[in-house]
Amino acid sequence: MHVAVKILGTIVVGVPLGLAATWVVTSRGGMGDSVADGPWKTSLVAGSPQSDPYTRARVALHGLFALNRNETLYYTATEDSSGAKLDGHCRYEVVGRDPSARWWSVTAYGDDDYLISNPGNLYSASQTSVLRQKDGSFAIAVGGAQAPSAKTSWIPAGTGAFSLTLRLYNPGPDMALDPADAVLPALKKVSCP
After folding, report:
1. CA-to-CA distance for 42 and 34, rounded, in angstroms?
2. Which residue has the higher pLDDT, 59 or 108?
3. Which of 21, 43, 80, 90 is 20 to 30 A (C-alpha) from 173?
């Protein structure tokens, strides 16, 4: 009887503690072996056999179908270039030139990891859809109540916290080998009410 009480007590205490620790690691942790390049962060192991169980759980929890980094690099930004959290009330610009990849896209996700619902069904901008400047560069407006102009690509970002994911499909060899030193677009806050 005394042993059964100890076992039951261990289960009653251990299971909730284990679940709580797992929740903290999977919801608040990084993606395992992460590197940063300005405001953009990527995992070196997501989508590879080297990823640990917690990285795999975070990938599954946050809805990211991760290919290995030779096929696709996934960069995520939750803060702007100055380190402030992204806020849908504010307006941002993703500015740059095409990253070294066969194809790329930038997509906004709400705090719940889903696309941000909006009347225009605008969720992302890509290499083939972005409006270009005369020199071939691009500027994507993100957030704010409406598009800044008809000559600018725009991604609505709702009214709360959000993140941006930059996907680089078939990245150049240098980028796949050293994702921390890739030439990526800047993410600048333009205005905030």
Report:
1. 5
2. 108
3. 80
